[in-house]
Every structure is written in C-alpha cells, then in structure tokens.
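Handout, page 2. Input:
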Amino acid sequence: MGLFKNIFKASEPKEEKILPWIPLSTTAQLSYISEKSKSKTQIVFKHSTRCGISSMVMKQFVSAYTLSDKDADLYYLDLLNHRDVSSEIGYKFQVFHESPQILIIKKGEVVTHASHGGINAIELQKYI
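Output:
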C-alpha cells in the first residue's frame, strides 16, 4: 500500500507561490517606473499568455524568485493585451522586443535584460 501512496502523492497539487506583481498596462506607467528606479530597482517581466515557452519560463521565474517588495517593484506585462506598452518599452529603454523578456531598471536605465532561458540565469540580487 505504501508504494501506491507514494505514487499518488506525487500528483497532489503544490501550493502556488504568489509574487507581488504590479500590472503594467499603460504607457504612462513607464515614466513612473523610470522615476521610481532612481531609488528602487524596477523589474519588468514581459509575458505572452499564448506561448508555451513564455509560460514555462514564467513558472521557473516564479519558483526561483526570492526578492521582497522592499527590494524591488515587480511589473507584469501581458504582451497580447498591451502591445502598445511593449512597443513603448523598446523605444523608451532602447531594447529590442523579445518574449518572454525581463528588464532590470535602475537610475532610469535598463542595467540588464534577457529573454527565454536567459531570464532565469540573471542573479536579481546583484541588482538590488
């Protein structure tokens, strides 16, 4: 009986980690993010809700995220619903659009950014 218990236990749902996401849905927020980055690290995660790779990367990011809301502000951009914001990010912060993509903003500028698997390779703590 113990064997079956161990097999079926593996399929029990895990408690999902909730991050302090701030929805990014307007281009006006970008000026606020730029200004706020002068005193606190700002992180923008661009996610395509229809992309399997983007979903996988996001799950890994959420699982590994250890910063508190005192360390950084964490923004979530749904690319499909806010393409105008994504385009403006590229223009304002001088980065090419990719999806999924993360940008770390300090002192009004992107200090690093990555896409796909590179997102989870970034050591966020070193940018705080």
